[in-house]
Design brief:
Number of strands of chain A: 0
CATH topology of the largest domain in chain A: Tetracycline Repressor, domain 2
Structural class of chain A: mainly alpha
Organism (chains A, B): Azospirillum rugosum
Order of helices and strands of chain A: HHHHHHHHHHHH
Keywords (chains A, B): DNA-binding
Protein name (chains A, B): AcrR family transcriptional regulator
Largest interface: A-B, 53 and 53 residues
InterPro entries (chains A, B): DNA-bd_HTH_TetR-type_CS (IPR023772), Homeodomain-like_sf (IPR009057), HTH-type_TetR-like_transc_reg (IPR050109), HTH_TetR (IPR001647), Tet_transcr_reg_TetR-rel_C_sf (IPR036271), TetR_C_Proteobacteria (IPR039536)
Oligomer: homodimer
Largest sheet of chain A: none
CATH superfamily of the largest domain in chain A: Tetracycline Repressor, domain 2
CATH architecture of the largest domain in chain A: Orthogonal Bundle
Low-confidence stretches of chain A: 1-5
Chain lengths: 206, 206
DNA sequence: GTCTATAGGCGGATAGAC
DNA sequence: GTCTATCCGCCTATAGAC
């Protein structure tokens, strides 16, 4: 499944230090702008040690992305949402989805993977499958359930799930992708989420 | 306004050749992966000539992005949409917006600017203002008009515009950002656009 | 303005001792 | 496994002739 990475190295070990440093540097500055010297320095390791664990810069980058991609998913949230009424369930999902994809860490991940998608296509795909695809699956499952219970009338759950995430990311996500702001304020987030849930409920009313 | 770029050089001139080559290479491979030698070679120019016109790689990159950013906007489309009934107007806007932001050229632009947003923040901002921000303005104007005429009930036109673009980009835009597909099929596009327009109209019914 | 040729340095990767 | 020291190529940028 996850062909990219060996099991996460034990915390505190040299490989872990290296991955940690690589994460910070690559995510903050991008692949091209980070040298192996910089990684070695931040990890308090010699370059030779670095190369002993990761054979090349490419390999280190891949390992780092794989490590970062192991994000939390929305599994538990979607299960909980199914036990609430629609408005609360949608709001719960929207809220956690927003927190998930608009966190500074996630944004940095998007930026670096998107920026190198041309050169590392398999990496982009692995990132997609480990993160966004898994999340979508969960939300589609929720939509199916809502439709089955007749809470809303959702003929195409896949489409509906895509619409919900589109509504939540809306225009804001692009602004964060471009580093035009650091992270959404509580106020802005509420405005977006309330708007998304209201539109969705009214639009899919049974 | 556009502080980034001198007036577009006359077609066929050396600067134009260089910008053209830079565009193809940077957009296809990213900033870090393209050397000045490669640009000079593709432009059929010596490196010295290149540096005579663009003082550094950074400067060339900025000029290229500014050149590419001069995209068409949705001004004419939004004006036309105002003269149609809501469903047709929204569909027209959604359609042209989708064509605009999901074209291979636009996607390549997003990728390279997003990837370098950390290192070229002013560039990201200029790109945003020249493209997405202008487009949003037009769509907001359309929403205001639709609300004024009572065709729909839109209390927050800015929010509604953001929602519409979110619905159209939905999940698909991310997949193209990650190079997971080349461009949406006619069929997929119609499914997304119809879904967006239907949801929007029902959700904002007067 | 445009070229050829080259300087100068950075950065990826390795040799060899411990 | 880890270190210090070093190789070598590539890439940005420039010098100097035409």
């Amino acid at each position: 499944m996850n062909t990219l990475v060996a099991p996460t190295p034990e915390a505190g070990s040299k490989p872990a230090q290296i991955l940690d440093a690589a994460g910070k540097l690559f995510l903050d500055h991008g692949y091209g702008a980070v040298s192996m010297d910089a990684v070695a320095k931040m990890a308090n390791v010699s370059k030779a040690t670095l190369y002993a664990h990761f054979g090349s810069k490419d390999e280190l980058f891949r390992a780092m992305v794989a490590c970062v991609s192991k994000g939390q998913t929305l599994v538990a949230i979607c299960e909980e949402a199914k036990r609430l009424d629609v408005a609360d369930g949608l709001r719960l999902i929207a809220r956690h989805f927003a927190d998930l994809v608009m966190s500074p860490r996630a944004m940095a991940g998007y930026r670096v993977v998107v920026g190198e998608a041309h050169r590392f296509p398999e990496l982009a795909q692995a990132f997609y499958e480990a993160g966004p695809a898994k999340t979508m699956e969960q939300i589609v499952g929720y939509m199916v359930e809502v439709n089955r219970k007749g809470q809303l009338s959702i003929p195409d759950p896949q489409l509906a799930a895509e619409q919900l995430v589109g509504l939540v990311k809306s225009h804001t996500h692009l602004r964060y992708m471009l580093c035009l702001a650091d992270r959404p304020s509580e106020q802005e987030l509420n405005r977006i989420i309330d708007g998304a849930v209201n539109l969705f409920i009214k639009g899919y009313a049974a």
